[in-house]
Design goal:
Length: about 100
């Protein structure tokens, strides 16, 4: 199998993934009609995409927590995301009740 064909398949799958409505179609493409080598290449690309998405969401969450805590991220770094999120929820709810 030529590398260019594998890249084309992976790129097609990535394009489908970017449109979340096509996720079921994407998964179907991966599981049917491709060789094991093609599937492994595509799955590797999908994992890279998921990791990038997870990192983007985590970065957004950390930035939001830093704004809520007004500390540039130090509170979250010290106490962890779970505690920081719980405390941020209290901060926001207290602000809403006061206003």
């Amino acid at each position: 199998m030529e590398t260019s064909n594998l890249r084309k398949i992976a790129n097609d799958i990535i394009k489908d993934l970017n449109n979340l409505e096509n996720r079921a179609t994407t998964i179907d493409k991966i599981s049917h009609g491709y060789t094991a080598t093609q599937r492994s290449v595509v799955i590797k690309h999908l994992r890279n995409i998921e990791e990038r998405i997870d990192n983007q969401h985590k970065d957004k969450l950390l930035n939001l927590l830093a704004v809520i805590h007004r500390d540039g991220g130090h509170y979250t770094e010290e106490h962890g995301i779970e505690k920081s999120t719980q405390d941020a929820t209290l901060i926001i709810s207290n602000q809403i009740c006061v206003d």
